C-alpha cells in the first residue's frame, strides 16, 4: 500500500511529484493552521483582559468561557469513550496515567495543540529528505497522518469558539459607544478575521468527509487501533477498479475457460521454445536412447498451391508393403540415396523416424476401410473425389447416437441462474417490505446443486458470463487548487452569514432568535429525514449539535447525503433567502446614521455574490472525482 494513498496525485489534471504532494497537502496547511491558532488564541486572551480593564466583566467572562469550551467538550468526549481507556478493568497504573494525561491536556490545551502542530510540521519536513518508496518516507508520512485527540479539539474550536466568538465580538463592535477604545477594537477585529479563517479551514477540510470516509479516510481523532482496523477491513473487503477490471490471463494453465483441446495440444507438442530445446537435446542424445515422438511437419509450401503441385513426393510410387520392408530397420538409420526432396503438403509422406508400429497401424486402418474407393490421383483442388456407389446402403450398421452428456446444457443453466440472481437482487433492492421467505430456495436437492456448481467451475469448456458486483462510490480528496477556491468561497459565505445575523440582532433581537430557532428546527427535521431513523440512538444527541453547525455552514459529517445536490442547493438558497430578508428589514426599518452600516450592507451583498460564484466554479471545474471500490465476494 502506498504511503500517500488518498493524497491527491495531480493538480488541475497534471500529475505532481511526491514532494509537491507532501508540501501542498501537509506542510503548507499545517503551517497556516498553526499561525491562525496562535493569533486567534492570543487575540481572545487579549480581548478578555481588555474587557476586564474597560469595566465589562460580563463580556470578559463570556469570552473566557468560549476559549475553554472546546477543550472541556473534547475532554468529556474522550473520557466517556470506552475504547480509549486501558483494557484492564479497575484503577491501576495505566488507568491513572491515562487520566492524568487527559487532565494535563485539558489544563494546558494551548501547549498540547502547539505540540501537535509542531510535530506534524517536523515530520512533513523530514519526509521531504527521503526518496519515494523508501522506509524513511513511509515512516514520516505515517507520523504525519497518525491520529490524535488534539484533532477533535481543533475541530470543535471552529464551532464552539470561533463561531460564537465572532457573533459576540461583532455585536459588541456594532453597539453604540464601542469605538472609543481603539486598542480593544483592533484586537476584536483581528479575532473576528481569524475566526472567519478558522471556520473556513475546518469546513473546507470536512466538507465531504463521509463520502471520503467510505473509501478510506479515517477520523483524525480515532484511536490507532481503530484506524488500523479500518484500513485492514477496507483492504480485505474491497478492491479498486484497476485491480477488479484487470484483463485476466489467457494462458491455458491459468484460465479455466480455455478449452481442454488447447491444453492437451500444448502438453503433447509443447510451445515453440520447448520444441527448439527438444531439438537441441536430440542432437546430443544418441538415437538408441531417444523415444519415438509424433511430429507435425508443416511448412510454407503446404499453403502454396503452385509449389505443392510442382513438388513431387519421392515416396509416391511406394506401396505400403514396400514401405514396411523399406523401413524394417531401426528408425532414422535408412539412407535414401541422399535424397533431400521435401514432401508436398497434399500427399502423405513417411519420414525415417516413423516407427514400424505406426506404419502397421496405418496399414490395418487402410485395409479395414474397404467401402471407400476411388482416391484422387490428379492435381485437382479436392483431395478426395466422390467414390462409386456412394449412395449405396452401407455394409455395416451406423454406430449408435451418443447419449447427451450430463453437462451439455451447462451454458444454458448458468445463464438461467444468472438471470434469476440478478432479478432477485433487483427486486430486493427496489421493492420494500417483501413477503418473508420469498426468495428462500432451500430444498433437499440443494447439496447436489452445490456439488454440480463446484464441478462446473472446474469445467474447461464453461463460459464466463458477466455478473453484477456491488460497488462503493465515494469521493477523492480535493487537490490544492480546489481547496483554495472552496476555502475562499466559504470565507465569503461566512462573512455574509455572520454580518447579516449580527446586524439583524442589533436592530431586531426578537426576530433574530425566531429566525435562528426556525432554521435550527428545520435542520433537525432534514437530518432526521435523511437518516430515516436507522441510526443508533446515541447519535441523535450529536445530531442536535450538527443542526447547530448547520446554522452557519453545511458539511457532510457523521451522515452521508443521499441527494447531495438537493442538500447544497437547498441550503444555500435558504441561507440566501434568510440573509436577504434580514438585510431588507434592518436596512429599511432600522434606525442608524453611521456610514458603517452602509458599508456592511454592501459587504453582505458582495460577499454573498462572490461566495456563490466560487461555489459554482468549484462545482463545475474543480470538484474531486468519484472513487469506486468493488466489494469482494466471499
From TrEMBL:
UniProt feature, compositional bias: Basic and acidic residues: 440-453
UniProt-listed InterPro entries: XK-rel, XK-related_scramblase
Keyword set includes Metal-binding: no
Subcellular localization, as worded in the UniProt entry: Cell membrane; Membrane
Sequence intervals crossing the membrane: 22-47, 59-80, 100-117, 185-206, 484-504, 510-529, 541-559, 565-587, 599-621
Membrane topology: Multi-pass membrane protein
Alphabetized UniProt keyword annotations: Cell membrane, Membrane, Transmembrane, Transmembrane helix
Positions of region (Disordered): 326-346, 440-461
Keyword Transmembrane on entry: yes
A GO CC term assigned to this protein in UniProt: plasma membrane
Domain of life: Eukaryota
Pfam families, alphabetized: XK-related
A GO biological-process term: engulfment of apoptotic cell
Family according to the record: Belongs to the XK family.
Protein name: XK-related protein
Gene: 1273669
Amino acid at each position: 500500500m502506498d504511503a500517500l494513498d488518498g493524497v491527491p496525485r495531480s493538480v488541475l489534471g497534471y500529475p505532481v511529484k511526491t514532494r509537491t504532494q507532501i508540501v501542498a497537502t501537509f506542510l503548507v496547511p499545517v503551517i497556516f493552521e498553526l499561525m491562525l491558532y496562535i493569533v486567534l488564541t492570543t487575540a481572545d486572551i487579549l480581548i478578555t483582559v481588555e474587557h476586564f480593564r474597560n469595566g465589562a466583566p460580563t463580556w470578559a467572562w463570556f469570552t473566557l468561557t468560549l476559549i475553554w469550551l472546546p477543550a472541556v467538550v473534547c475532554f468529556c468526549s474522550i473520557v466517556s469513550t470506552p475504547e480509549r481507556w486501558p483494557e484492564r478493568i479497575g484503577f491501576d497504573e495505566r488507568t491513572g496515567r491515562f487520566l492524568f494525561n487527559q487532565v494535563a491536556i485539558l489544563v494546558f490545551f494551548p501547549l498540547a495543540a502547539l505540540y501537535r502542530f509542531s510535530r506534524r510540521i517536523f515530520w512533513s519536513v523530514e519526509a521531504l529528505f527521503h526518496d519515494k518508496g523508501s522506509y524513511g518516507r513511509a515512516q514520516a508520512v505515517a507520523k504525519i497522518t497518525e491520529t490524535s485527540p488534539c484533532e477533535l479539539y481543533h475541530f470543535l474550536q471552529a464551532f464552539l469558539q470561533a463561531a460564537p466568538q465572532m457573533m459576540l465580538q461583532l455585536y459588541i463592535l456594532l453597539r453604540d459607544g464601542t469605538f472609543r477604545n481603539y486598542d480593544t477594537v483592533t484586537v476584536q477585529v483581528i479575532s473576528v478575521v481569524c475566526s472567519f479563517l478558522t471556520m473556513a479551514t475546518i469546513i473546507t477540510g470536512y466538507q465531504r468527509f463521509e463520502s471520503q470516509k467510505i473509501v478510506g479516510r479515517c477520523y483524525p481523532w480515532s484511536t490507532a487501533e481503530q484506524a488500523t482496523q479500518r484500513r485492514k477491513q477496507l483492504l480485505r473487503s474491497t478492491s479498486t477498479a484497476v485491480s477488479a477490471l484487470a484483463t485476466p490471463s489467457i494462458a491455458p494453465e491459468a484460465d479455466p475457460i480455455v478449452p481442454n483441446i488447447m491444453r492437451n495440444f500444448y502438453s503433447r507438442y509443447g510451445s515453440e521454445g520447448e520444441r527448439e530445446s527438444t531439438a537441441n537435446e536430440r542432437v546430443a542424445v544418441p538415437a538408441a536412447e531417444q523415444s519415438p515422438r509424433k511430429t507435425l511437419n508443416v511448412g510454407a509450401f503446404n499453403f502454396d498451391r503452385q509449389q505443392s503441385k510442382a513438388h513431387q513426393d519421392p515416396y509416391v510410387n511406394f506401396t505400403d508393403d514396400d514401405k514396411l520392408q523399406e523401413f524394417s530397420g531401426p528408425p532414422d538409420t535408412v539412407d535414401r540415396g541422399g535424397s533431400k526432396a521435401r514432401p508436398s503438403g497434399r500427399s502423405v509422406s513417411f519420414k525415417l523416424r516413423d516407427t514400424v508400429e505406426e506404419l502397421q497401424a496405418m496399414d490395418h486402418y487402410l485395409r479395414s476401410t474397404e467401402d471407400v474407393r476411388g482416391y484422387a490421383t490428379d492435381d485437382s483442388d479436392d483431395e478426395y473425389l466422390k467414390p462409386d456407389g456412394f449412395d449405396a446402403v452401407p455394409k455395416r450398421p451406423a454406430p449408435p447416437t451418443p447419449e447427451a452428456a450430463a453437462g451439455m446444457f451447462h451454458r444454458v443453466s448458468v445463464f438461467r441462474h444468472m438471470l434469476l440472481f440478478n432479478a432477485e437482487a433487483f427486486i430486493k433492492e427496489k421493492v420494500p417490505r417483501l413477503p418473508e421467505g420469498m426468495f428462500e430456495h432451500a430444498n433437499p436437492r440443494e447439496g447436489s446443486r452445490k456439488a454440480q456448481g463446484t464441478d462446473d467451475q472446474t469445467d474447461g469448456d464453461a463460459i464466463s458470463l458477466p455478473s453484477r458486483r456491488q460497488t462503493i462510490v465515494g469521493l477523492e480528496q480535493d487537490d490544492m487548487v480546489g481547496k483554495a477556491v472552496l476555502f475562499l468561497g466559504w470565507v465569503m459565505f461566512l462573512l455574509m452569514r455572520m454580518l447579516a445575523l449580527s446586524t439583524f440582532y442589533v436592530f431586531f433581537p426578537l426576530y433574530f432568535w425566531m429566525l435562528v430557532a426556525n432554521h435550527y428546527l428545520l435542520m433537525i427535521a432534514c437530518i432526521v429525514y435523511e437518516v430515516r431513523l436507522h441510526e443508533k440512538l446515541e447519535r441523535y444527541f450529536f445530531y442536535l449539535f450538527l443542526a447547530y453547525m448547520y446554522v452557519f455552514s453545511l458539511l457532510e459529517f457523521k451522515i452521508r447525503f443521499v441527494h447531495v445536490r438537493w442538500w447544497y442547493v437547498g441550503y444555500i438558497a435558504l441561507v440566501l433567502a434568510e440573509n436577504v430578508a434580514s438585510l431588507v428589514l434592518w436596512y429599511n426599518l432600522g434606525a442608524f446614521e453611521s456610514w458603517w452600516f452602509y458599508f456592511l450592507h454592501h459587504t453582505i451583498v458582495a460577499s454573498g455574490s462572490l461566495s456563490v460564484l466560487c461555489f459554482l466554479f468549484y462545482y463545475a471545474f474543480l470538484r474531486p472525482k468519484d472513487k469506486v471500490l468493488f466489494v469482494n465476494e466471499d
